[in-house]
Fold each of these.
Amino acid sequence: MAADAGRIASLIRRLYQIEGEPRLDFRRPAGEPALAAPDSVSWRVFKNPIALFVGGVAAVILELAEPRVRTGVWEHSSFRTDPLRRLKRTGLAAMVTVYGARSAAEAMIAGVRRMHDRVTGDTPAGAAYQANDVALLDWVQATASFGFLEAYHAYVRPLDAADRDRFYAEAAPAAVLYGAVGAPASAAEWEARLAAMLPNLERHEIVLEFLDLMRKTAILPVPLRGLQGALIRAAVAITPPPVREVVGLGAEWDLGPIEGRLVRLAGAAADRLPVKGTPAVEACLRMGLPGDYLYRR
């Protein structure tokens, strides 16, 4: 049993490690706060790898529905050629943003901003885009907050209205550093942003191409590989119905009741499993808290 637990822990740690790159130590500098506090809703949500996977896929569906974001992502990233590395890099950036020491998060975000300065072009329809455009950054930030929050709420543990609003508001310090100065700070603001953006969203085969990549790429460890398809459908299930309709994700993408139960069981189990060496556990240790602090709450 101990050997199995150790193997699972090792597999989970690998989700946060990019091959060929140095491992980030979230325990340093000792005592330095993150952009969000240890008692935040954000620290609770982001510790859960099931919520991160499901929420990340849902966020990308929403992003790819916007033509300027879609073109920028698809033409200036490695999603098509190396989706696993791209996903790990995005996930690690989220971990640094939430759990990293403030100095590390600020340095990483500044680097992302410099990289985005070079991401410019035109959509196939001729619309100009620039990755650091505030309107696009606000949408990307909004979709990320929505995806992670809804995935945790639906498949891990329900959150009340106050905690949902807190989650959006807690993202503000990091969002401003990224340049998303108008990102939603509450659930109501997210709903307003979605309503305003809907007329700009459109159907495109790239959304289906992305989901096919997610299905075919060996993202999860072998013991969980059979769950990957259900996690993708779980992401579609939390995508707002008007967006599903726009992008053409019909009933064939519905999450079955048995699959839904399996996803919730996996989400609940992950929420009770502190894994040594993961960002959430190391960040707690950096702040002088027990490694299982977030798993007691």
Amino acid sequence: MQAKTLTHPIIAAMQKRHFVLLDVLPLLGSIAAAGVLSRVGLTFGAWVGFVVMWYASVIGIELGYHRYFSHGAFETGPAGRAALAILGAMGGQGPVVTWASTHRHHHNHSDTPEDSHSPHRRDGRPGVSLRSFLHSQLTWKWSYPYPNPSLYTPHLVRDRLIATLSRYYYLWVVLGIVLPGVMTAAIDRAWGGLVTGMLFGGVVRLYLGQQVTFLVNSLCHIVGFRPFDSKDHSRNVAWLVPLTLGGSLHNSHHAFPSTANNGLLWWQLDPGYWLLWSLARVGAVSALRTIPPGVVERRRRGHRPAGPDIETRNS
């Protein structure tokens, strides 16, 4: 049997390097950027660069890293896979194989002592402490048992395109900082916009985007609504939906991990699925996996299951 997690000094060193470069430095950079931007101000171009790069990286993380690479919720061709992998890398949360392996491991051990980023105490006591919340939000990334990609994501390990793109992971991160600067300078028609855009749409966007995504790990396992039975503490947090493109409908996701649509109940909005549906109409993606309404109702809390959960594939 293959080991579930891997430990090696090189892996540990890479985790610490990534934590310093893409968790600590973006925080320090954002603090410095706040001082600069408070003096020079934010132009229209800077805001456009920020918003465009925010949702570009969220599309890469939520629709790409999460729904596609981790759960196979839809299908797309080589160009689509490459675009999603690059946009996800611009979010600065690790190469796609590492992200997907860690996420699948999380689903297998959600809110147990083996879960790398559960906000619930590991000492056997009930509830959440400040330390366990901070661990879930950020500090777990400093050092954690590395989920074995050969076990959790063998399809990605064998994917030559993903392997090639992953070698340039840090290049994509830097590109995600430079692009909003170029965008800002072009919109404002001023070279000064290059620096403003890189600081606001690049560094600040990178840091805030990470923290909002990490709230799905932490906050969405503490507060919110639980319309579906699951074996963990996952919850739906509606006010985070616009910022995460539906990723904060976390209890819905844990109830049906491989669906392309987290908006399972009529009042739940999933902008990420709306985008996937639109892309399917023009042939950019296909085979969107959805859940039949009857199956959704059987998994509602308080309802007894009346049959197996069967997922369907719709183009």
Amino acid sequence: MKRTLLVLAVGLALASSGLFASGAPPATERVVGADWLQANLDRPEIRIVDMRGDIRDYWEGHIPGAVFLDSAALRWPDRGVPSKLMPTAALALLLGEMGVRKNTQIVVYSEVNHYRATYFMWALDVLGHPNWVLLEGGFERWKKESRPVTQDYPALKPVVYSAGRQPDAGVRATLADVRDRNSATTVLLDVRQADIYAGEKGSWKRKGHIKGAINHFWALDVDETGAWRPADELRRAYEALGVTPDKTVIVSCGQGQMSSHVYFTLKYVLGFPRVKNYDGSFNEWSAVASLPVETGK
């Protein structure tokens, strides 16, 4: 049931004819249309990254020049805690192997802009890579519009990617950030389904949610057509939960992937200035017996 719900919600996300139902986001430079991409497919300074969930889909056909990246490759164990974001030095090495330099324009797509895509884009924010955009509508719209598709692999030449500075702590929350947060200035937002948040379901040793976390299921941000809900409607929904742009917002889920979708919504759709993704999420928190966990809705 959980998997079915996630697949349904993902299938809705961004499947409509426009990325935003109404109300242009403050950071529209983070979204690129298919017309622009098709006109710029041959530009050498662009790297297209296919983040679909099954490499067999990539084999069957992908956007010309796109390199396949399995989202699992971005997640490493951290002192025994599974599935946290890989070290930035390793991420820089991975980008270099993909032929990406510091000034390369990265265009990311998945089926219909799944949270695998937003997780990679958040990782690029952590690294401090400035030039990335999301392909509006993903591969499904690209294919539906009969745009060019290939089965050929891109000819990539590895380069040295220089990260240039320390990881951006302004977009990544740690366990200590969550544990020591000031509830007057910081909101902790758990974006999992309500039954998992409540502790009725889950695969962890302890079930429930981080004490003090507010629940908002990430898929509520899109409507039945898959478009993001109007910006004013989103803003009102978040404000009703106490999630306002004057506060630091830490988003979490099970392992930081679904929460990256809300990270994108808050930071790039609504323009919130201080949004952090806690990639350790309940996966890390629940394993520490001394840290408080709550149940119930």
